[in-house]
Amino acid sequence: MFDIAVIGGGSAGMMAAIHASKTHKVILLEKNDSLGKKLLLTGGGRCNVTNSIPIENFIQNIIGNGKFLYSAFSKFDNQDIIQFFQSRNTPLKEEDNGRMFPVSDSSKTILSTLRQELQKNNVSVRYHARVTDWNVTEHHIESLVLEDNSIVQAKNYILATGGMSFPHTGSNGDGYRLAQKLGHTITDLYPSEVALRSNEPFVQAQTLKGLSLQNIELKVLNTKNKAVVTQNSDIIFTHFGIAGPAALRCSSFVLKQKEREVPLSLDALPNISKAELLHIIQAEPKKALKNILKNYLPQRYADFICMEYADTKSYQLNDKTLQSIIEHIKDFRFKVNGSLPIEKAFVTAGGISLKEIDPKTMKSKIIDNLYFAGEVMDIHAYTGGYNITCAFSSGHLAGEVL
Ligand SMILES: Cc1cc2nc3c(=O)[nH]c(=O)nc-3n(C[C@H](O)[C@H](O)[C@H](O)COP(=O)(O)OP(=O)(O)OC[C@H]3O[C@@H](n4cnc5c(N)ncnc54)[C@H](O)[C@@H]3O)c2cc1C
């Protein structure tokens, strides 16, 4: 009999097991033959382990229920994560936008530190241990059942099975089914941080395929044409729609609208006003429009946005045409129709309802010896180290309070 059984050996489960095992006998159950498969993929294989920005700003980047983690962060926040690794001979470095990576530029370093800590604390790690069911009496888990029908008994349980994106990493939605069996509610599940599809003719014709635009402003509009979110970053046009950081950051806002088509507005030159743009174009009357704009935009985009006027000299453009071209550059409207499937998303939005979890302890309000950690809960964030931090912090809290 163990004191604590942690289900799922990802970021959340490993951190929970490490902290719980300081004072308890812990077993970590992982369905794969290794730990942290998803963690290894993050940051392009370099592991974007956390983000260094101040915690108030940090929480704004957890777009799905960040405030729920105030208590967890008060015990173990991004700075504690940095300290956790640095003090274990795993130096980190900061890159753009506060993103933290191991100096080694390899996720394996982070995983290896976590594994060493599990070993040091005598956590029993059981691989090929897929949990499929519970034995429950009176809101209390007596034991859990593995796929091979064996039973594991513990006094307390921490469910840290992740979401359902990139299912080959092991997180395939098992945790939702397990929580539902115990009476927990699962909120709507949908992809977050995912590329968007579009049926627009220019996408279908692959006119801009492969073209990336840097430092653009992308807005998601609602049915009243009001911006629900604005992202300043880069995008890339693909054969199916748009990808890149700005598109990914917009994705959950698009999908949350549950509309068949959602309008976006793209400002390709957010740092130049319409009046300035007019001045720039009119300052070179004898130049073809596309040649003026190519100093500011990639040539392919300039050609596309100028339409049939690409070769027209600027003095030949009447006011109405000029205004409409400027409008196109500053507020190019196109519709997106959903996204790639959840399997291809970086993060799952939705999860175990937070109404049924105590934020001070991560304890279930339904089952008296069950706790939660990580992406299995209804919490999601932008990429940039925020999701991993949510997993580490909630894992730490669940492990520490027991
Ligand atoms: C390609 C990619 C890149 C990403 N990049 C970033 C990034 O840059 N920044 C960021 O913040 N986030 C990023 N994320 C998201 C981040 O990796 C996750 O949010 C985070 O790993 C979630 O941790 P977790 O422990 O909750 O879940 P997971 O890491 O998914 O771990 C869950 C574990 O539970 C195991 N498991 C599942 N079901 C069972 C079961 N029934 N029995 C036993 N074990 C089970 C799984 O095998 C898995 O090992 C990225 C995700 C992907 C896919």
From TrEMBL:
Per the database record, which ranges form the RsdA/BaiN/AoA(So)-like Rossmann fold-like domain? 3-400
Q: Which UniProt keywords apply?
A: FAD, Flavoprotein
Q: Which InterPro entries match?
A: BaiN-like, BaiN-like_dom_sf, FAD/NAD-bd_sf, RsdA/BaiN/AoA(So)-like_dom, RsdA/BaiN/AoA(So)_Rossmann
Cofactor(s) this protein requires: FAD
Asked if the keyword ATP-binding belongs to this entry, the reply reads: no
Domain RsdA/BaiN/AoA(So)-like insert, which positions?
A: 190-347
> Can you say what this protein is called?
Flavoprotein family protein
Natural source organism: Filifactor alocis (strain ATCC 35896 / CCUG 47790 / D40 B5) (Fusobacterium alocis)
